[in-house]
Amino acid sequence: MKDSADLRFLLTIRASENLLAAARTLGLTPSAVTQRLQQIERRLDVRLVDRSARRLRFTEEGELLCARGAVLIEQFDALLDDLHARRGGMVGTLKINAPLGFGRRYVAPAAAHFQELHPEVDIALTLSDEPLTEVADRFDVVVHIGELRLSNLIGYAVAPNARWACASPAFVKRHGMPATPEALAALPCIALRENNEDVTLWHFSKGRTTRSVRVPGRLSCNDGDVIRGWALEGRGVIVRSEWDVDDDVARGTLVRLLPAWKLPDANVIALTHQRAGLPMRTKMFMRHLQARFRPAAPWRVR
């Protein structure tokens, strides 16, 4: 490995669907990308990319190099940022987007504290449950909960977040405790409409066993607070993020259903448009936000 530029080069390839996409990102021709990759492999005397695969696929050695290299690059960049921050303050406006409920509870306090620490930075926080495709281009940082489906964005882990199926104790008393995911198909369920997803098809897993259940969404809404309120009133079963219902479950106002079955995680991530060349205010806010959820997310501290 010649220098950190080679590591960044490999990480760009690793984040791309194929060499052509990597070439576009790097501003090089595909042949130039291939040639540089071969030079790195010759210097290391190890094959990093399997060129026989239809899609871009790194070898085990390539995956190891990228995984550890990404950590080194992040630490190196953090060191440079800290040195630059000591040399001069941050200025400008930071535009942040976050989901309504999570944004009110967690992102707004974090943004206000960040502005207090860096008074020359202006914060423009927008809370919205619009689809990611509608907001991504308008903000410096987008806080997102769930799977990332836009490959042109860079995601930074903020906090783990599970999804739970829940209902009120009164609802469970009336309808009984479901023993299997399939039992939900016969119960009143409440659906959250978000991200243009199929909101009444719920997916469960237990070990290697998976179940997909079409539930009757008699009530649905695009606001998480509303569906949580309906569940508290005993109107049906909801699937909701751990961060939103952990207090209710701890108090006993909501009951977890099917705890042995796992729903897809909806981890909290912060998104930007690029990894290199980010303004200092953006980088420092990302770290500030991550630090608010360490060593453990608030909903996992009891």
UniProtKB/TrEMBL annotation:
DNA-binding keyword on record: yes
GO MF assignments: DNA-binding transcription factor activity; sequence-specific DNA binding
HTH lysR-type domain span: 1-59
Record's keyword annotation contains Transcription: yes
Entry's Gene Ontology BP terms: DNA-templated transcription
Pfam family, one: HTH_1
Signal peptide: none
Stored InterPro entries: LysR-type_TF_proteobact-type, LysR_HTH_N, LysR_subst-bd, WH-like_DNA-bd_sf, WH_DNA-bd_sf
Transmembrane segments: none
Keywords: DNA-binding, Transcription, Transcription regulation
Highest taxon above the source species: Bacteria
Family designation: Belongs to the LysR transcriptional regulatory family.
Stated name of the protein: LysR family transcriptional regulator
Source species of the chain: Paraburkholderia acidicola
Lineage: Bacteria, Pseudomonadati, Pseudomonadota, Betaproteobacteria, Burkholderiales
